[in-house]
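Lab notebook page, bench 4
Experiment: in silico fold of construct C2
Operator: M.H.
Input chain length: 123 residues
Purpose: comparison with the prior construct
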Amino acid sequence: MIKIKKIIGILTIEIIALILIFYFLKSIQNLPQCWIYQTTGLLCPACGGTRCVIFLFKGNIIKSFLSHSIFFMAMVYLFIVNVVILINLKREKKVATWIYPKYWYGIIFIIILFIYTIIRNLL
């Protein structure tokens, strides 16, 4: 019974968060400009992340991926992890626990993000 309450609580929080994000992003008319890009002319590691989320919420997966592919893949990974965690809350035998985030996943993500940023600025 406690596990079902946990699942319902987590799902409720996630649904409320998604609804709030959706309505917040829907109300944005003009996206703020990146001050790093404005001052230096170089794309920062996060440039395109907001557009990526907006296109994803609008259902345009291709434009979302093209806006910031690393950010897009990170969102897909976190969604998959979330689904696996929700599935494992109800099961005694856990599945796909190897996908759970580990500290070195974050280090690899940061390294890939900076390599992506360098390549994006060179091209």
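Observations: The chain has a mean pLDDT of 84. The helical segments are 2-27, 35-40, 49-57, 61-67, 69-90, 103-122.
Next step: discuss at group meeting.
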